[in-house]
Prior knowledge:
Layout: E1 7-8, E2 13-14, H1 21-48, E3 58-60, H2 64-87, H3 92-118, E4 121-124, E5 127-132, E6 136-141, E7 145-154, E8 161-164, E9 171-174, E10 179-192, E11 199-206, H4 211-219
Parallel strand pairs: 1-7, 9-11
Antiparallel strand pairs: 2-8, 3-4, 4-5, 5-6, 7-10, 8-9, 10-11
Helix pairs in contact: 1-3, 2-3
Amino acid sequence: MTQGSAVRTAEPRRIGPELHGADRLRYSVRRATAMEAAGWRSIGRALAGRPRVPRGASAFTYDRPVRTILVVFLVLSAIEIPIIDLVVHGIPWLRWPLMALGVWGVLTMLGMLLGYLTRPHAVGPDGIRVRHGGEVDIDLAWNDVASVEHRRHALSGAPALSLTGHGDDQVLNQVVQDGADILVTLERPTRLRLPQGDVTVSAVRMSVDEPAAFLDSVRTHIP
């Protein structure tokens, strides 16, 4: 395990099939439905007070760069509801659809925020769990991990999950605010299951709010 300065990577690309027309629409609907379901699961897990951290593992957040933005949008979405009610109170056919849309927006933002809070990264006896919101949960067993190092990777404009490299050198990037902080190199190209489809990668880059603490936890399990 090593620490290093920031580096810039190759242009990241999105994960998922190249679709057009009706196929693209169906894929988008499936993804939107899956994200909606993940948000509701996150709300339920928060209400039950059960963050998804494996037994004996340490949790590490990764959403700090966007947490304030999400909270602000959540508050603004909540404030919008009584304002809309005041403006269209006398027009029932318009009032109730807009009220329902406003409540749905609040719950969507809440589910997104709670997805981050209830599903942190984890380092434990069985390995590293890489998360991103309510959908992504990647299990990297210690037997599959060759090394872990702290190095800030600039990934400007990259989506939450992206790929860089090709073939045996392909890397999965879990990105928050245009970058990742931890590089997990794998012993061999490994197939990972993602919401957008399976990918085979030789390394995983992770965003972590406290990289030094993350590395300290890793050192308790591997030299």
